[in-house]
Amino acid sequence: MVFAVSVVVGAIKTATALVGGAFWFLPTFMLAFAYYNYELFDPENRVINQQQLRTEYDFIVVGGGSAGSVVASRLSEVPEWNVLLLEAGGDETELSDVPILSLYLHKSKFDWRYLTQPTDSACLAMEGHRCSWTRGKVLGGSSVLNTMLYIRGNKRDFDEWAVQGNPGWSYEEVMPYFLKSEDQRNPYLARSKYHATGGPMTVQDSPFNTPLSVAFIQAAQEMGYDHLDINGKQQTGFANFQYNMRRGSRCSMAKAFLRPVRLRKNLHVALWSHATKVLIDQQTHRAYGVQFLRNGHIQTALARKEVILTAGAINSPQLLLLSGIGHKEHDHIAMGGLVFKIDKPVSLVMSRTVNINSAMRYAFYGDGPLTSSIGIETVGFINTKYQNVTEDWPDVEFMMTSASTPSDGGLQTRVAHGIREDYYQEVYREISNQDVFGIFPMIMRPKSTGFIRLKSKNPKDYPLMYHNYLTHPDDIKVLVEGVKAAVAVGETQTMRRFGARFYRKAVPGCEKVPLYTDAYWECALRRYTLSIYHYSGTAKMGPAHDPAAVVDARLRVYGVPGLRVIDASIMPTITSGNIHAPVVMIGEKGADMIKEDWGIAINYTAWHP
To answer: Which InterPro entries match (predicted)?
Structure first.
C-alpha cells in the first residue's frame, strides 16, 4: 500500500511539473495505471543510476540516448569488459510512456531546449525567427520524446554510403543490424524476410487509429499509389506507420536495451553526468578518458580501451569541436500548418480525446486514443517531378495526421513548434479545437546544409546552431511540389466523404504574393518551417581522402586513437525517412565493430533480398 501511494504521489508531481495541471484526470489515471502495471514503477526496475563509480573502465560511452543505450548494452555483453555510460539527464517518468503526450515533453526537463540562430531564410513564424531543436536530455535520449516512428530509409541511401568510400555500409550489409534489434509484433509483417522477431526493440502498429487512417490510404490509392510495407522491398507508396511501441506504451531505447540488463555488474550508468571534455594525451593524441560534471563536482573516468561518443548530432560534435574537430549538419524539414477542415467528429481534438474515459481505457487495456502518436497515423513516400519515378527513391515524405496545430487550442503544439502567439491567433484561432487533419510534406534529401560552432570554450554553453534551411533553391522547388501534392491528396473524393476542404487562410507575411502560386508556397514555407528533428552528418563518415570526413568506416575519429563516434553524427548523407531506426542500426553495427577490433567473435548472419 505504501508503494502504491508513493507511485501515485510521484506521478502527480511529474504530471504537474510537465503539463502544469492541464490534464485534471491524471491523478486518477495514474492510480489505475500504477495498480495494474506496478512492475513498471518498481524502484528496482525503474531506477538505473550507479552512485559509486570506478576510476577506470574499459569503455566509456558518452550519451545515453538511442545509440548510446544500444552500444552500452551490447558492449556489456562481454563479461570481462567494464562499461560506463554517462547521461547528462535523468530517468524516464510514467508520463513519457504515454504516446499522445509526447509534445508535452518538449520544452520540459527532458529536453535540451536548443534554439537555432535567427535567420531570414526560414522559421519566420517562430519566436525570434529561431527554430526549436528538441533533443532528449534523459536516459533513452530522443526516443523518450519522439513520435516513435519506425522507418529504416531507402535501400539506395545505404548503397550510396558504400559507394562514397564506406565499406560495410551497403543496404545488404546493414540489414542484419536492423533485424538484430527488431521485435516485430505485427503478424502480417513478422514472417517477412524484411522483418524479425525476438530483438530488444518492439515494433508494432498503434492499437488505436481514427477512421482517417484508412481514408488516407484509400486517398493515396485513388491517386495511383501502392499500399505497402514502407520498410520492405519498395518504399514509394503509402502505409500506416509502424511504431516503437509495446502494449500501447512507448518503447524507448532505455526500456529496450538498458533496463533488461540493469543488473549486470560490469555496466554502470551515471545519470545527471554532463561530459565536459574528452581527455587526449598530448604526446600520443590518444583518447584516454572523460571529464564530466556530476553532483556539482568535476569528476574524471579513465578508459583503458576506448571513449565512444554517442551524444547525438549536436552534443557529440560539440565535444569534438572543443578538440578542434567538426563539420556540417543535415536535417529533414517540412512545411507545418497544412490543415484540412472536416465535418465528421473523427479527428483527435485534444479537449474531446484526452479525458477520464480514454485514460482509464489506456490504464486498464493499453489501447484507446492515448496510444495515438499525437495523431500521426499514415506515411506516404512520393516522387515529385524532380525525381525519376523508376528509381524507387522518393524525394518527399508525407506525415498524415488525424490532428494538427489547432487541435489542442494552441495549448502545446504551438509551444513545442515555437510558433509565435500572434501568428497562431491570426491563422488558427477560428478553427481551434475543431475537427481537422494535417499533412506534413517533408523533403528527403535536402541540399541546404547548416553548421554548428562553439559559443565559447565553456562546455556548458550551448553551441551556436545555424540551420541554413531553404538556402538552396532546389530544396524550395521540391518542397513546393510536395505541398501541392499534399493539398491534392487532402482534397480527393475519398477525403471529401468527411467534408474535407483545405483551410485557405492566407499566411501572414505573404499577403502581397498571389495565392497558391509557387511564390506563395515558398513564402509560406519560410514561415512555418518545421524541423523534424533529424539532425545528422556533423561528424561525417568517409574515406581518409575526403576532407569533410571526421570518422572512418569503422567510426574511429581520424587522428585520435581510442575515440569513436557512433550516432547520427556519422551519417555521410541523411537517410530517406525518419532517422531513429537508422540510428539504432548504427549503434548495433558500431558495437559489433568494437568487438571485432578487440578480438571478440561476433554472430553475423548475411542477408539477401
So the answer is: FAD/NAD-bd_sf, GMC_OxRdtase, GMC_OxRdtase_N, GMC_OxRtase_C
